[in-house]
Design a protein that fits this description.
The protein is an all-alpha fold. It is built from 4 helices and no strands. α2 runs antiparallel to α4.
Length: 112
């Protein structure tokens, strides 16, 4: 038997050994599916940033539309600016969560 041949595992292993956490190599190559999924989530985040920029750029047109009502905000310029900030901050929080989950999945964190 050569040195490169792995050793045969015993027929019985104690439960403590089977339940102990395995050590993963942080420098191990990630599977293609993990890399592709991470890239797709990152692209979704980039599209979200572009979408938020488009909303911010056209906010006055959105508010000026006759069918638009801002529930809970005054129709004053300060109220519409506050509504824009609420939209941008909440959208940014969702995008940040997407980015963090993508990074943690790529890093190999099982909980993400």
């Amino acid at each position: 038997m050569s040195a490169a041949t792995p050793q045969k595992r015993p027929a019985y292993e104690p439960a403590a050994r089977l339940l102990s956490p395995t050590r993963a190599d942080p420098h191990m190559r990630r599977p293609v599916t993990i890399v592709a999924g991470t890239v797709l989530v990152l692209l979704r985040a980039v599209a979200g940033v572009i979408g938020l920029a488009a909303i911010a750029g056209g906010w006055n047109d959105i508010v000026a539309d006759a069918g638009t009502t801002l529930e809970g905000f005054d129709p004053t310029p300060e109220g519409t600016a506050a509504a824009l900030w609420v939209v941008l901050v909440s959208g940014g929080a969702v995008l940040l969560a997407d980015l963090l989950i993508a990074v943690f999945v790529f890093a190999g964190r099982a909980w993400s």
